[in-house]
Amino acid sequence: MHSSPAPKRRRRSKDAEIESSSTIQNSSPVVIFAHGAGAPSSSDWMQRWKTMLKEALHAVDVVAFDYPYMSGAKKRAPPKAEKLVEFHSNIVKDAATKYPGHPLILAGKSMGSRVGCMVAATLKEVNVSAVLCLGYPLKGINGAVRDETLLQLTVPTMFVQGSKDNLCPLEKLEATRKKMKPHNELHVIDGGDHSFKIAKKHLQANGSTQDAAEVVALQAIAAFISKSLE
């Protein structure tokens, strides 16, 4: 008796399911998340945003790390951002090797976002899908606008900024965004400072909460990343 061809069809269907599942799985991004100048990846802010980004983006992993100057018991001032690019680039290349086929998102807090933009603009060995800047420090210590790196970018870029962030006047950022080559978006956290913290009086006046403001920001981030990965 000849065997029925049904099992073959079932096997082909099962193979298609596996292939489809693999495609979905590989579309999940890997986020490389760099800290700001003053606090390491283990800080409460970094850990909280690491968790929120992983959930909002359905990320396969959020790779947070410390720049070398953070090591040791004695707190040290960060070097110039340019001196951190090589170390940051190696973290990105390691993540690309560990998670082949997954889109890479470079995210950073303040200084970490600036270094991430430098990496995205110069790293040739790895394809970066998007850059996420959380509190980009557009103004330097001397007050000058530091837009050179942003103008070198060629990958989709999103800024999340507090409206009361003295390190990034929104009108200056808007002027820079108009000159940037790639698609870029801005989400403003109303009343937020450089770390997105909103004063209680502002929240009460607007009938909002810190958590609610951050949820809206995360929704905007997720929508931007989804578009960037299409």
Automatic annotation (TrEMBL):
Where in this chain does the record put each KANL3/Tex30 alpha/beta hydrolase-like domain? 29-225
Region Disordered: what ranges?
A: 1-23
From what superkingdom does this record's organism come? Eukaryota
PANTHER family registered for this protein in UniProt? TESTIS DEVELOPMENT PROTEIN PRTD, TESTIS-EXPRESSED PROTEIN 30
User: What is the protein named?
Assistant: KANL3/Tex30 alpha/beta hydrolase-like domain-containing protein
Which organism's genome codes for this protein? Lupinus luteus (European yellow lupine)
